[in-house]
Design a protein that fits this description.
Layout: H1 3-15, E1 21-29, E2 33-40, E3 46-52, H2 60-74, E4 84-89, E5 95-100, E6 104-106, H3 107-113, H4 119-138, E7 141-142, E8 151-154, E9 164-167, E10 174-175, H5 204-207, H6 214-230, H7 240-249, H8 255-258, H9 265-274, H10 286-298, H11 307-314, H12 320-326, H13 371-407
Antiparallel strand pairs: 1-2, 2-3, 3-5, 4-5, 6-8, 7-10, 8-9
The chain binds adenosine-5'-diphosphate and magnesium ion.
Length: 408
């Protein structure tokens, strides 16, 4: 008997007393849970069960989170969201969640095989993710963990370009309070201060442990689009903590420079906006970002691109977006005021980037000191007195000479 068969047998025993679901095979094992294909003992239907790992049931917050995930999703029915059908507890008090069984592969698995996807496929995937997020956000929920492994590409070829995307894993999603619903609605980090989400796709505000709102998901979607088209997320660093710091401080390389394949400049500009450090400078709603995606798609991806020209003109320059996010009034007194309203929680000044690739861009602007004007003023003073002195001496000499001549 293999390890997996033993696990399935043990789980069967664990589920029998409290549920009609029977495990068939393991699908995935993440940091928090096990994902298993199950069959209903009476109905014969197959589904996917997500169980909290046994050692984590002691952490009340985690058990609670799976229940929250179930409650969030049960009320949402959308073609781009995985459908939740059941929730329960095993005989050992492990919470589980049951969702529809999807056929296909996660976007993460797809990107492991095909490192990059074409811009038109990428835009279609992102459009569907945003369709799903429109519904999620309308319900007052922020997903907080949009990344390739949490998106599923269904095998059914219904959508354009043969993709049908479903958002999975609302394990770290959070509901905004009724009063805080809407774009401005925010919520605090978890009570335990646990950092949630995946560093490569995490928004700067999540990286800082600050309050987040729907715009954090839109930043993650920007990172996702970058990853799909460029083959790597915007910030690749040796350690996760460096990735977090980069989200807060570093300018992403413009997409047009990071891509090997040609892309329209409008796509690079869209990603640039999605990745702004200050939430108020990003797309404000999933609808707004979806409209921008549609606009780029209409512009004709195949007719790309100003990409080479962009590479020549923007090389080694941080993005305008990142610049305005970093600039402090102290070092850039004449910087134009941003055209958006800054959020109260994001008005702090962050230090300039430490990335060695772009240090010179962050030298404080030179103050016009006009030394050329000052120098004659300072150096000219003794000269003028000298001239005055010589004239006076001549005048005095002339007067004395006249007096002496008359007297003589
Ligand atoms: N309903 C489903 N149908 C098919 N595969 C799924 C389903 N849900 C999850 N998976 C697979 O399991 C993986 C992990 O699921 P996820 O819900 O993200 O749990 P985790 O909390 O472990 O990240 C996904 O990346 C996907 O490959
Ligand atoms: Mg996941």
């Amino acid at each position: 008997m293999t390890v997996e068969q033993r696990q399935i047998e043990a789980l069967t025993k664990e589920l029998e007393p409290t549920s009609r679901w029977r495990p068939l095979r393991a699908l995935a094992r993440g940091g928090m849970g096990e994902v298993i294909v199950v069959r209903h003992a009476d109905l014969g239907t197959e589904a996917v069960m997500k169980l909290l790992r046994p050692e984590l049931t002691e952490v009340p917050e985690l058990s609670q989170r799976l229940r929250v995930e179930a409650r969030l999703l049960i009320g949402l029915s959308h073609e781009n969201l995985v459908r939740v059908t059941d929730f329960g507890w095993t005989s050992t008090q492990r919470p589980f969640l049951v969702t529809e069984l999807l056929h296909g592969e996660s976007l993460g698995q797809r990107l492991q095989k095909d490192r990059v996807l074409t811009p038109d496929v990428a835009l279609e995937i992102i459009r569907q993710v945003l369709d799903g997020l429109v519904a999620v956000h309308a319900a007052g929920i922020v997903h907080r963990d949009i990344k390739p492994d949490n998106l599923f590409l269904c095998a059914e070829r219904e959508g354009q370009h043969g993709v049908r995307v479903k958002i999975l894993d609302f394990g770290v999603a959070k509901v905004l309070t009724a009063a805080a619903k809407g774009r401005a609605g925010t919520f605090a980090p978890t009570a335990t201060g646990m950092l949630l989400g995946t560093p490569s796709y995490l928004s700067p505000e999540q990286a800082k442990g600050e309050r987040v709102d729907v715009r954090a998901d839109l930043y993650s979607v920007g990172c996702l689009l970058y990853r799909i088209v460029a083959g790597a997320p915007p910030f690749v660093r040796a350690r996760p903590v460096d990735v977090l710091a980069a989200h807060i401080l570093d300018a992403p390389k413009p997409l047009s420079e990071a891509c090997v394949q040609p892309i329209p400049e409008a796509l690079s500009a869209l990603v640039d906006r999605a990745l702004r450090k200050v939430p108020g400078e990003r797309f404000q709603t999933a609808e707004e970002m979806r409209a921008a995606i549609a606009e780029v798609a209409r512009g004709g991806i195949s007719r790309a691109s100003a990409h080479t020209a962009a590479r020549n003109t923007t090389a080694s320059e941080p993005t305008i977006a990142a610049r305005s996010a970093w600039r402090s009034p102290a070092i850039a007194p004449s910087a134009p005021a941003p055209s958006h309203e800054l959020d109260a929680e994001t008005t702090e000044v962050t230090p300039p980037p430490t990335d060695e690739n772009e240090p010179t861009a962050w030298l404080p602007p030179r103050t016009p000191r006009a030394p050329e004007l000052a120098r004659p003023a300072v150096v000219g003073m003794p000269r003028r007195w000298l001239v005055v002195g010589v004239v006076l001496a001549f005048a005095l000499g002339a007067v004395l000479a006249i007096v002496a001549w008359r007297a003589g």
